[in-house]
Amino acid sequence: MLRLGDKVLSERSARGLSITELSKKTGVGINEICDMEMQHATFIKQEIFHKLASVLDLKGYECFTYEKPGEILGTRIKKARVKMGYTQKKVAEMAHLSTPITLTRLEKGYCSKISEETFSKLKDILQLDREDFELFIQKGKNTTKKEKNNIINIELIQSLITQKRKELELSREILGKKADVSSRTIKRIEEKTQAHYNKQKLLQIMYALHFSEEEIIECFPSFREQQDLNDEIPKKLQKKI
Questions:
Q1: What pairs with residue 114 in β-bridges?
Q2: Would you tell me how many other CB atoms lie within 10 Å of the CB of residue 38?
Q3: pLDDT at residue number 22
Q4: Distance CA 42, CA 61 (A)
Q5: 110: burial class by Cβ within 10 Å (0-12, 13-18, 19+)?
Q6: What is the CATH code of the structural domain delimited by 69-138?
Q7: Are 37 and 5 in contact (CB under 8 A)?
Q8: So where are the chain's domains?
Q9: Hey, what's the torsion of the CAs at 188, 192, 194, 199, to 10 degrees?
């Protein structure tokens, strides 16, 4: 079975809907949809699931919904511990956890995710089946608020920049002058040869190509309104464009 995010992306693409269009049809926020598709949210609230299911075919994915996901995780861990006849303190000592409070928080449902490291420590002691916990395991490092705010849909940006530049019959040199960036930067973006992208330069190019507000918000999921866009672009450039 596909992960929930993959399923939402697959069904949305099959219907030719953009994230913005799906958001308008369902009332689910653009950021929430983007998070699902990029795997930042594995489970979703039942209310949101039903809104998406009214437009997308999500039959069989009801198991990905929750009221309090932490309780699901906590119940499974507590059940395994009790079955083995261990106290929380004993498990914490055996797993070399920094404090029994870590286990207490998990079992009481205060945490909806468990780190890969903590799961590995508990797996053999409590004989946990990884498949039963796969959707609760936090892969890699946690995404910080700053990192979430910098999420960009770079593939969409790359294709739209190329498309709009050609529609306007602009050379990279002319577009570079309008956007106050080098033509080399534009070439790297279009040919996808650059590993990291400067968000401000991307916005300068998009403003120069007259991207609509909806298009920019879809490319930068952290933006919610026009003010967010204006704050990211220098006033000098806004006047120039």
A1: 137
A2: 15
A3: 94
A4: 11
A5: middle
A6: 1.10.260.40
A7: yes
A8: 4-66, 69-138, 154-240
A9: 80
Q: Which tens digit of pLDDT belongs to each residue from 3-15?
A: 788 889 999 999 9
pTM confidence score: 0.39
Work out the pLDDT band at 195, boundaries 50, 70, 90. Answer: low
Residue for token pair 């949101």: 48
- DSSP letters of 47-101? HHHHHHHTTS--TT-GGGEES-HHHHHHHHHHHHHHHHT--HHHHHHHTT-S-HH
Is 153 within 8 Å of 34 (Cβ atoms)?
Answer: yes
Q: The CATH number of 154-240 is which of 1.10.260.40, 1.20.120.430, 3.30.390.50, 1.10.510.10? A: 1.10.260.40
**Higher-scoring residue by pLDDT: 227, 219:** 219
- Specify the CATH class of 4-66 in words: mainly alpha
| Strand 137-138, strand 114-115: pairing | parallel
Structure-token match 């849909």, residue found: 153
Q: Which residues contact 219 (CB under 8 A, 6 or more apart)?
A: 152, 153, 156, 157, 160, 202, 206, 211
CA atoms within 13 A on the CB side of 22: 31
For residues 26 and 12, is the Cβ–Cβ distance under 8 A?
Answer: no
pLDDT for residue 117? 85
In tens, the pLDDT along 139-168 reads 655 444 444 445 677 777 888 899 899 989
CB 93 within 8 A of CB 122: no
Which two tokens mark 187?
């070439």
